[in-house]
Design goal:
Helices cover 74% and strands 0% of the residues. It is mostly helical and 291 residues long. Helix 4 (77-89) packs across helix 12 (256-284) and helix 8 (159-183) packs antiparallel against helix 10. The longest helix is centred in the last third of the chain and has 38 residues, at 200-237.
C-alpha cells in the first residue's frame, strides 16, 4: 500500500469515494401565507362558475348599445337592473314574488307529502304497483299545461286551480324518482337488515329511504323547476298578482324593463329554490362517501 501511494497509483479494487455535495432543497415560497393561499383558492371557486354569467351579462349590455338589437325590445342590462332595484325599493316586486312563492311552495309541499309515501308503497308492495301503474302511465304522459283549461273550468280562476296545477306538475317527478330510488337500493342492505331482525317499517325507514335520498332529491329538484314553470303560465292566464302577472301586465303596458325585471326575479327564485334543496340533500346524505 505504501508503494502504491509512493508511485501515485491505487489498486482498482479499492476505489476512493468522493463526497458529492447535497442537492439544495426546493425553495418554498414563504412570502404567501397559508391563509392567503386558502383565500385565493376559495375566491377562485366562487369566481370560476360566475365567468359564463358575467360574459352573458356583458353581451346583454353591449348588444343594445352597439345597435345589434333594438333598445326598445331589449334594454341594456344596467337599465333592467335599475328597474329591478326600483321595484324592490317600492315593494312591488316583493308583493309579486311572495304571491308566487306562496302558491308554488303550497303545491310543492302537498305534492311531496303524498308522492313520496305513495312512491315507496308502489316500489315496496307489488299489489299496489299492479293496481296503480295503469293510471300512472295514463296521466304521467299528459303535460300539466295541457290540463290548465280543465283546472280553470273545474276549480275556477282563483288560487285553488293554480295550486292544484302545481301539485299535478310536482307529483310525477317526485313519485317516479321515489319509485326508482327505492327499487334500486342494494339488496344486500335489505337482507342484512332482515337478518338483524328489523321489521318492515324499520327496513323502509332506516335502510331504504336513506339509500334512496339522492334519487328522491333529484325528483324534488325537477319538481321545484316544474312548479315555477307551470305557475308562471297559470298566472299569465288569469291572476291579479304574481310574477307571471307582472310579466304579462308589463308586456301589455309596454313596460319592457319591468318585464325583464320579472324574468330576472323568476331566475333568482329558481336558483334559491334549487340551492335550498341541494343543501338539504347534503345534510341528509352525509353518510355518503365523496368520490
Amino acid at each position: 500500500m505504501s508503494s502504491a501511494l509512493a508511485t501515485g497509483t491505487l489498486d482498482s479494487a479499492s476505489p476512493v469515494t468522493e463526497s458529492v455535495p447535497a442537492r439544495p432543497a426546493a425553495p418554498t415560497d414563504s412570502r404567501v401565507p397559508r391563509w392567503g393561499r386558502l383565500a385565493t383558492g376559495l375566491a377562485w371557486r366562487v369566481v370560476k362558475p360566475s365567468i359564463a354569467i358575467l360574459a352573458f351579462l356583458a353581451l346583454w349590455e353591449a348588444a343594445p348599445r352597439a345597435g345589434l338589437v333594438d333598445k326598445v325590445f331589449l334594454p341594456p342590462f344596467t337599465e333592467v337592473a335599475g328597474t329591478f332595484f326600483e321595484l324592490v325599493g317600492n315593494g312591488q316586486l316583493w308583493e309579486h314574488v311572495s304571491t308566487s312563492l306562496t302558491r308554488a311552495l303550497t303545491g310543492f309541499v302537498i305534492a311531496v307529502a303524498f308522492a313520496v309515501p305513495l312512491g315507496v308503497a308502489i316500489a315496496w308492495y307489488r299489489p299496489v304497483a299492479d293496481f296503480l301503474n295503469p293510471v300512472l302511465e295514463l296521466f304521467r304522459n299528459t303535460a300539466a299545461l295541457a290540463l290548465l283549461p280543465v283546472f280553470i273550468l273545474i276549480l275556477g280562476i282563483g288560487e285553488t286551480s293554480k295550486v292544484a296545477l302545481v301539485i299535478y306538475a310536482c307529483a310525477f317527478p317526485v313519485l317516479l324518482n321515489t319509485i326508482s330510488g327505492v327499487r334500486t337500493v342494494d339488496p344486500l342492505l335489505i337482507k342484512s337488515a332482515r337478518s338483524l331482525g328489523f321489521s318492515q317499517f324499520a327496513i323502509v325507514y332506516k335502510v331504504v329511504l336513506p339509500a334512496a335520498v339522492p334519487t328522491i332529491f333529484t325528483g324534488l329538484r325537477m319538481a321545484a323547476a316544474s312548479s315555477i314553470l307551470v305557475l308562471i303560465a297559470a298566472e299569465m292566464v288569469g291572476a291579479k298578482a304574481g310574477l307571471g302577472y307582472l310579466i304579462t301586465a308589463s308586456q301589455l303596458n309596454f313596460q319592457i324593463p319591468d318585464m325583464y325585471a320579472g324574468i330576472i326575479a323568476i331566475a333568482l327564485v329558481g336558483l334559491i329554490f334549487n340551492a335550498v334543496l341541494v343543501f338539504t340533500e347534503r345534510r341528509l346524505s352525509r353518510w355518503r362517501v365523496a368520490l
